[in-house]
Amino acid sequence: MRYIVYTDGAGSTEKNVAGCSYLILTETDYINSESVQLSGIDNPTHAETISVGLAAAYFIDNVKLSKDDIIEFNIDCASAINFYNRYAYKDGKVKSNVKSIINSVFIVKQLVSKCTVRFQKVRGHKSTINPNTYVDRLAKLAIRR
Q1: What distance in Å separates the CA atoms of residue 88 and residue 85, rounded to the nearest whole number?
Q2: Residue 119 and residue 75 in contact, taking contact as beta carbons nearer than 8 Å
Q3: pLDDT, tens digit (0-9, with 9 covering 90-100), for 102-124
Q4: Which end of the chain has fewer CB atoms at under 10 Å, N or C?
């Protein structure tokens, strides 16, 4: 099965909170989405990185995966993609002082051991309505809660 995941993060330095969200689809079905407020984190890149971990946790907890399954993470933040490409496939200590990010990498490593995981850069949510726009709005909504 091929799963398509969109993630996004948003941050507010004024409120010292961030929001993150994910959307999981197949080519024909909606699977799940979630939006979470992150207290004490205001960096949108950190929020996006954490959203990948939340989506990975959903897969581990709720989907019976096989080695033939493919999960494609569509992310509009190149820093988050580079971070996961650096740490998700290798052993070694994660260089971050944010515990939620370290936990996210740990969960993504578990996911990588179960199936094929790919990280792709997608265009930001500029003037078109698409799944990336949806997760952007969910992340911003989480900040306002």
Answers
A1: 6
A2: yes
A3: 999 999 999 999 999 999 998 87
A4: C
